[in-house]
Design brief:
The chain is α/β, with parallel strands linked by helices. It contains 15 helices and 14 strands.
């Protein structure tokens, strides 16, 4: 329970420190819509999504007003389409994506995730059809998000899938070249993908999840920054261990807010409550930045020496606070470092403090990975695949989730700016050194075996 003092401090977070419920994501299983007929499948998925999610936006708005806590995004995650529509061709997969987009628009959510394939150990025909459909599907829809899991600690890394995703990202960028390759901003490549992610673009409803479930994503980088600033102002001699405790207590309060909102939305919709994901996910707004936390901790910019250690401390403290606040913490809880979605991080990249190599090092201790990284448009599919492979290896060896959301911006070079708009923000294009130096390695293909860490039985 929160004390009166803690309740007051939580209200201050809401008023002045950008605390919000970043997303309420309604998971909907589509397995009972499976059909070999594309017309029947799309009609059934539209009917089910619109029936179950028709009240989602209204309920979220009502709950937000009642508690004075803004719910910024309302989203839907569905069963992996590569499984639910496994009999479909590539063209029919695109039709399924269009149907998902139409349903999302009808119920008023901003994104719908689940155009997903799980191929860490190999492909089914449905997996191949879906991956081949991704560029056209994302280019022809506004709200559909896609994710592909190509690696896991249990299975190793499917290098054929990694190479295929490099080619897929290139094609998706080309099809949206007039918008700086924005289709790639809706596509994540994962290792060890969780089944209960509420955040896009990775959200989907895992095969072990309920038929209908509410998962909540809470974000509070501004809250954490202000807590650190207050603590350092009150006690100039405070050390990192004490600051870690401050972050942990702050995360506890933020998680409590998220679970309260999630359970109330689930109750009103008559569905199961799943998890609260406490992730320090920034926006392009001033004061809502993960990068600014690093400056509050004494670093001039995110990316300078010491950044990986600071991120490790931050991520651990956030997870500890969340775990103490709720027994239902899941998803990707921790700290995100999406380059384009955080003004401070984008500025560090522009000034050269943050290279792709330093970003990769930091992903070994953060919640996700190389997130919203803009690269030169002439970056080859092989180089993209090699960057993905490195990121997958970090996740596989460390038994953690990692992902890559890479955007090769057509017609632009390192140092220029890419503009994605809205929550996706803008970013300075980062150089990927060693272009074509990885081609022979990537073309070998096959599967990098699971590490010894997989032998846990």
């Amino acid at each position: 329970m929160l004390s009166d003092r803690e309740v007051i401090s939580t209200l201050e977070m809401l008023r002045h420190e950008h605390l919000d419920v970043r997303t309420v994501t309604l998971g909907i299983s589509l397995f009972d819509c499976a059909s070999g007929d594309i017309g029947r499948f799309t009609a059934m998925l539209r009917e089910k999504i619109c029936r179950i999610a028709s009240g989602l936006v209204e309920v979220c708005d009502q709950v937000g007003v009642r508690y004075g806590i803004p719910i910024v995004n309302k989203r839907i995650a569905v069963s992996p389409i590569a499984v639910a529509a496994c009999a479909m061709s590539t063209g029919q997969m695109v039709e399924a994506a269009v149907a998902l987009d139409s349903a999302a628009r009808e119920v008023g959510v901003d994104f719908i995730g689940g155009f997903t394939a799980l191929v860490e150990k190999g492909f089914t025909s449905g997996d191949r059809a879906l991956i081949e459909a991704i560029p056209d599907a994302l280019a022809s829809t506004e709200r559909v998000c896609s994710s592909v899991n190509v690696a896991s600690t249990r299975a190793g890394i499917n290098m054929d899938a990694v190479y295929l995703m490099g080619k897929t990202i290139k094609r998706a960028a080309e099809l949206t070249s007039e918008r700086d390759g924005v289709a790639c901003a809706k596509l994540c490549v994962f290792a060890n993908i969780p089944e209960d992610i509420p955040f896009m673009a990775g959200a989907y409803l895992g095969v072990g999840e309920p038929d209908q479930v509410i998962n909540v994503g809470v974000s509070g980088p501004g809250v954490v920054k202000m807590a650190i600033d207050r603590a350092r102002a009150a006690n100039p001699g405070i050390d990192l261990g004490e600051l870690s405790e401050i972050i942990k207590h702050t995360s506890f309060k933020v998680t409590k807010v998220g679970e309260l909102i999630g359970r109330e939305v689930a109750r009103l919709l008559g569905v199961t409550f799943g998890v609260v994901d406490l992730s320090l996910a920034p926006t392009p707004n001033v004061g809502d930045s993960v990068g600014e936390i690093f400056q509050s901790l004494g670093l001039s910019h995110i990316g300078v020496p010491g950044s990986t250690a600071a991120l490790a401390m931050l991520n651990d403290a956030v997870k500890k606070g969340g775990a103490f606040a709720s027994s239902y913490v899941g998803g990707l809880s921790g700290a995100f470092i999406p380059v384009s979605e955080d003004l401070n991080i984008a500025e560090s990249a522009r000034k050269g403090f943050l290279s792709i190599e330093k970003l990769e090092a930091m992903t070994s201790v953060c919640s996700v990975g190389l997130d919203m990284v803009a690269l030169a448009g002439d970056t080859s599919a092989e180089t993209l695949a090699a960057i993905i492979a490195d990121e997958m290896a970090i996740g596989v060896i460390n038994r953690k989730t990692t992902a890559a959301r890479l955007i090769p911006v057509p017609g632009k070079k390192a140092g220029e700016k890419a503009f994605f708009g809205g929550l996706l923000g803008e970013a300075t294009i980062i150089s990927a050194r060693g272009e074509n130096g990885s081609s022979d390695f990537i073309r070998l293909g096959g599967r990098i075996p699971a590490p010894v860490q997989s032998m846990t039985n």
